[in-house]
Amino acid sequence: MNEPQVEELPSVCVVGSVNMDLVVRAPKIPSPGETVMGRSFETFPGGKGANQAVAAARMGARVSLVGCIGNEAHGQQLAQLLHSEGINLSHMLQRRDKTPTGMALITVDDSGENTIVVAPGANATLTAKDIEDAAGVIASHDVLLMQLETPIEAVAAAAKIARSAGKAVILNASPALPQARDVLKMCDLLVVNRTEAATLGGLETYTEPGRLALRLAEIGPPTVVLTLGSQGAIVAHRGRPRRVATLPVKAVDAVGAGDAFTGALAVGYGGIHQGVRR
Hints:
- The chain has 9 helices and 12 strands.
- The chain is α/β, with parallel strands linked by helices.
- It has a domain of about 190 residues: 3-Layer(aba) Sandwich (UDP-N-acetylmuramoyl-L-alanine:D-glutamate ligase), CATH 3.40.1190.20.
- The chain is globular and about 50 Å long.
């Protein structure tokens, strides 16, 4: 009897940021000018690129990461942690000796809500030339997954390479930048939250979510996923929006939740894209 064949998961190349997260837990998020006593302080590996790469790898996909880190203790620790997750770092560009690894300062309140301030550090040194040097690894994967915590020139260069190679191009447009609209036209799938969708679409944040998703689909990508937290998400594919519910959970910490979702989505979408190519 022949053994059933298990179809290999799509491979994912992530071009994105790598940060060390400095997290303080507190009863509430402080208002401007207010000091709040925190309960605890911890450091965690983070950055949207690293988070999404780990999520995709834990789904079982083969994952490579292209990005920049510093050459100090934080950079070394992050490289070791990513390697332990099975992520290929052979094209993690050389560590920057004169620029520290990116950092995120995060406050998490008792409800799981958070505020985040990012100092990009080495992430801001990623150039289009760096991406061109990694063109081979980008083209050798089924999916390119990007965010906007690295310079837009590098993001655009990566999208062009993957597009030319016939690979699926996914952009998590966070943080949202109006100048990213040109990149949207090279994407197959766009993932945004409500605030990001409003910024990119030139609409108010109170605009009905379905309209926001359709507006972004008009700009470029054929498929838009608009995440709405506990309210689920809206998927708009070629002008047809559909609401998708989420499973009820007790929120402990929302930091990285969107990245985990996007990394897993990239693996699933890559499988669909592979089927279309066949």
